[in-house]
Amino acid sequence: MIRIDANSITDSDSFHSVFASAFGFPSFYGRNMNAWIDCMSYLDDLEAEMSSVHVTSGQVLPLVIENAHAFKVRCPELFSALIECAAFVNWRCIQAGRAPLLALALHA
Question: Which is the CATH superfamily of the domain at 2-107?
Answer without folding.
Answer: Barstar-like (3.30.370.10)
